[in-house]
Write a structure and sequence with these properties.
CATH architecture of the largest domain: 3-Layer(aba) Sandwich
Number of strands: 14
CATH superfamily of the largest domain: Type I PLP-dependent aspartate aminotransferase-like (Major domain)
Bound molecules: pyridoxal-5'-phosphate
Largest sheet: 7 strands, mixed
Shape: globular
Strand content: 15-25%
CATH class of the largest domain: Alpha Beta
Radius of gyration: 22 Å
Strand order of the largest sheet: 4-10-9-8-7-5-6
């Protein structure tokens, strides 16, 4: 049967395709359809897509380590020695020696007793939260926290409540109202917010959590390697009690994988019971080796790890925006249509700055999300700032 004819017919055999096609049409009409664009990243900075060579301000590879020779060599060497895959879940035969070595490095960096490496940051949060919260419990989440925190919270079966973004007073009220009705309470937030670049008030959050016997989870996906001398956003709040510190190896660390840093019994329990550890294959040797090599570079080079924030602050100064707190700077444009047009205009000037639309960000806050890298020249930042000013004025 001809394809379009199949889509038009209402016969039961075609309801799936018709459903998908109808949904795509609705999204297209609202400028919310998304499409993959094949992209060749030639370096930490330059990419090629749609026949064009663009300077990227949309990669989370803040230190350019995904293309660093020492990091690539470590991955290649690990592949030669240990193969391309872990071969099984870590609890079966997949616990290759690089995972333990990486966990020691991460625990040392974060100042915790122990660490556990996951397949990705998404797998970390969707595994950790249901390990520590269940149907008798409450999970309270910053409203702008990353999608995988929300996914983990919902998977847990606990009562899930949002607190207003970075509003410690609101969190206190919610704990006051709901804590006694729950057996355990877990509070989760991004350390650096992925789409806004601002930092959670981890010191105050930690105090409130301790007062109410709630467990604080901070997601440091965008802090590790670039804030707090490379130790991440929690290091900006010395003494804050953050018992669950998760993050990813896929951003400043330049590769792939996720982690949790915590006390020894917490990590031992995760390795025993967390479903995304027990029922998912261990991180490949190449990814673990790349992360170890990246941590060597991060720990030994203060200028490198300070550079992305320095570039972001140069940009916010040039466009008269509030000073950047992290390498992420949003330029909020409102409608999806405006954000797409701004992104297209920047591509005309040779920049890759991808438009971020709902549901990744709340309705009415579609934006350009600009990510700065240690590899950007100050002159690149200056040119981008001029182009963004022109667009904002238009
Ligand atoms: C990217 C991101 C994740 C997911 O990490 P992956 O390793 O890419 O799965 C989790 N949390 C935050 C805040 C992120 O920005």
């Amino acid at each position: 049967m001809h394809r379009t004819a199949a889509l038009q017919s209402n016969s039961p055999g075609n309801s799936l395709e018709a459903y998908a096609a109808g949904k795509l049409e609705q999204l297209q009409a609202r400028h919310l359809r998304r499409e993959l664009v094949a992209t060749t990243r030639e370096s930490g900075l330059w990419l090629e897509r749609g026949g064009r060579r663009l300077l990227s301000f949309s990669c989370n590879d803040y230190l350019g380590l995904s293309h660093h020779a020492a990091v690539k060599d470590a991955a290649i060497e690990a592949t030669r020695r240990y193969g391309t895959g872990a071969g099984a879940s870590r609890l079966i035969t997949g616990d290759h020696p690089l995972l333990g070595e990486l966990e020691q490095r991460l625990a040392r960096l974060k100042g915790t007793e122990a660490a556990c490496v996951f397949g990705s940051g998404y797998l970390a949060n969707t595994g950790i939260i249901p390990t520590f919260a269940g149907p008798d419990d409450i999970v309270i989440v910053d409203e702008l926290a990353h999608a995988c925190i929300w996914a983990g919270a919902r998977l847990s079966g606990a009562r899930v409540v949002a607190f207003r973004h970075n509003d410690t007073g609101h969190l206190g009220e919610l704990l006051h109202a709901h804590r006694s009705g729950a057996q355990r309470a877990l509070v989760a937030t991004d350390g650096v917010f992925s789409m806004d670049g601002d930092i959670a008030p981890l010191g105050e959050l930690a105090e409130i959590c301790v007062r109410h016997d709630a467990w604080l989870l901070s997601d440091d996906a965008h802090g590790v390697g670039v804030l707090g001398e490379g130790r991440g956003s929690a290091a900006l709040f010395p003494g804050a009690h953050i018992p669950l510190q998760m993050g990813t190896l896929s951003k400043a660390i330049g590769g792939y994988g996720g982690y949790l840093c915590a006390a020894q019994p917490v990590i031992d329990f995760v390795k025993t019971r967390t479903r995304t550890i027990v029922y998912s294959t261990g991180l490949p040797p190449a990814s673990a080796a790349a992360a170890i090599a990246a941590l060597d570079l991060i720990e030994s080079d203060p200028d490198l790890r300070a550079a992305p924030l320095r570039k972001a602050m140069l940009f916010t100064r040039l466009v008269d925006a509030p000073a950047a707190q992290s390498p992420i700077v949003p330029v909020i444009l409102g409608t999806a249509e405006r954000a797409l047009a701004a992104s297209a205009a920047l591509a005309e000037e040779g920049f890759a700055v991808v438009a971020i639309r709902p549901p990744t960000v709340p309705q009415g806050t579609a934006r350009l999300r600009i990510a700065f890298s240690a590899a950007h020249d100050d002159s690149d930042v200056t040119r981008l700032a001029a182009a963004v000013r022109k667009i904002a004025a238009a």
